[in-house]
Amino acid sequence: MLVKVNSAALCGLKAMPVFLEVNTWKGCDSFYMVGLPDSAVRESRMRVESALTNSGYRLPQMNTTVNFAPADVRKEGSGYDLPLAVALLAAARLVGTDALGRVMLVGELGLDGSVRPVKGALPIAIKARQLGYDALIVPRQNAREAAVVDRLRVYGAERLTDVTALLDGRGGLEPVVVDTRAEFLAAQGDDPLDFADVKGQEQVKRAFEVAAAGGHNLLLAGSPGCGKSMMAKRLPSILPQLTLSESLETTQIHSVAGKLDGNTSLITRRPFRSPHHTISDVALIGGGSTFQPGEISLAHNGVLFLDELPEFSRSALETLRQPLEDRVITISRAKYTATLPCSFMLVASMNPCPCGYYNHPTRRCVCTPGQIQRYMNRISGPLLDRIDIQIEVAPVPVDELAQAPAGEPSAAIRERVVAARAAQTARFRDEPATHCNAQMSARQLQRYAQPDPAGAALLERAMKTLGLSARAYERVLKVARTIADLDGAGQTGARHVAEAVGYRNLDRASWGE
Fold first, then answer.
1. Strands of 303-306's sheet, edge to edge?
2. Which terminal CB of the chain, N or C, has fewer other CB atoms within 10 Å?
3. Are 341 and 200 in the same domain?
4. Under 8 Å between Cβ of 123 and 90
5. Residue 510 banded pLDDT, cuts 50, 70, 90
6. Residue 183 burial by CB count (10 A; 0-12/13-18/19+): exposed, middle or buried?
7. DSSP H helical segments within 105-243, as ranges?
């Protein structure tokens, strides 16, 4: 008997249909599996047979051939266990076949017949709806994630017997319903980390506000314990709330990476990713022998925080150069090619020297000029040019820290940031590829960010004095335009340019002078 069951495979952030064709005939109980299955798929026979036995099913002795179509695409992972079990039962006439053509199945099986979660339930649900299937059966832990997709019945199964009862028309499972918009709005709220906790550091907090208002990358240099990490972790609290489309896009990436728990239907807060400095190139940008999104994609629509920036490997940092410019990365490997979005704000922190106390007001630096230069050279000039705002963070004296009032709350800062972003949305309403000032092209800079004569003269003098590169020149214009937006100014003026130039004090020509 020939039976076909519908499933899906992940290709990057998207899913593609996979059909399990099972053909059985009387014989000596041979079992063949074709269609480029990997080791996890080939091992599924043992898992499936044990799950069937412990669920009360006994397959008759027969020859079996299983084909995973299309045969030229490698099948990876354990998500084919459930559709394979159903196909074997259908071929043995132990479960009804009437509904199989209208249903897609995915899930891993335990030896006891339980259905375990898989990666990528959301993109699989999107593909099931696109292909016109009536229903999708997934593990219970993946049900809310998949149910975000409307016009598709999603069933969450805990055991194999739940699935067979549903296919036989004996009920037992009800569709999981998620009101996407209502849950998205209900889950939004104030961030638990607030800038009100930060005392002092008004200049640095201003830099964070400017960075958030324009989507600019930010580098903090300061001695240990001056509050760099504390402020960086609070950046998402002043960024605009995720939109529903951004939330869906972010959730899809985390779904493919297997980062969603069973109670999550949507990611409603901007991601904040903080990898350790020992991270590998592949873990940072994504890829691997089995595809996995990297940290830059997991930080999409959010913040990527690199603490102790010079301690990261040079090769890992250099892989960031193209994603920072293009906000998308294409990973090409022998087995696959995947394109992933990676539009994130880069926030990095570092000590100003190996000992950490260069320019410290009370502690003496023991580093030589050569040691400081070699330490700074761990960050390449092209990467440093791509960081719009570079600022030194001075420690707050203990006596001032004890007496300082609470800082301005994040909610108040966010209001100004949202107003500046609204001005940018209006400015770029006819240019959908640009969402904030940090994404402006050279042509858009010429059109929207040219300063008035006083500002242009000031910028020209700064270029010569600081030895800024052409890319740094563009960064200054972008930051100055953002500062003008925060002021509600129609044109960039000299005071906006002056503040923007002040955020380039870590450039090579000015460092240590």
1. 272-273, 303-306, 345-350, 218-222, 389-393
2. C
3. yes
4. no
5. very low
6. middle
7. 121-130, 140-146, 160-167, 180-187, 202-214, 228-232
Q: Residue 96 is part of a domain; what is its CATH number?
A: 3.30.230.10
**CB-count burial class (<10 Å; 0-12, 13-18, 19+) for 362:** exposed
What's 446's domain CATH number?
1.10.8
Give the model confidence (pLDDT) of 465-484 as tens digits.
Answer: 877 777 788 999 999 999 99
- The count of domains in the chain is 3
374 domain residue, yes or no: yes
CA–CA dist 241, 421 (Å, integer)? 11
What are φ and ψ of residue 21, in 5° steps?
-100, 120
CA 310 and chain centroid, separation: 23
In sequence order, the β-bridge partners of residue 378 are: none
* Spatial separation of the C-alpha atoms in residues 236 and 347, rounded to whole Å: 11
Whether the pTM exceeds 0.90: the reply is yes
Distance CA 11, CA 340 (A): 11
Whether 380 and 271 share a structural domain: yes
Q: How far is 192 from 82, CA to CA, in rounded Å? A: 40
Residue 219, domain member (yes or no): yes
**Side-chain-facing half-sphere of 473: CA atoms under 13 Å:** 19
Which residue segment(s) compose the domain that 380 sits in?
A: 195-409+421-429
CA distance 236 to 234: 6
d(CA 90, CA 281): 46
DSSP string covering 83-110, please? Answer: HHHHHHHHHTTSS--TTGGGEEE--EE-
The predicted-structure confidence for 333-389, as pLDDT tens digits, reads as follows: 887 889 999 999 999 999 999 999 988 888 899 999 999 889 988 998 889 888 999
Please state the separation of Cα 419 from the chain's center in Å.
25
Asked if residue 473 belongs to a domain, the reply is yes
Amino acid at 52: L
Radius of gyration, alpha carbons of the chain? 28
- The domain that holds 239 is classified in CATH as 3.40.50.300
- Both 425 and 446 in one domain: the answer is no
Distance CA 249, CA 136 (A): 20
Instruction: Identify which of 281, 270, 284 has the alpha carbon closest to the alpha carbon of residue 215.
Output: 270
Do 162 and 258 lie in one domain? The reply is no
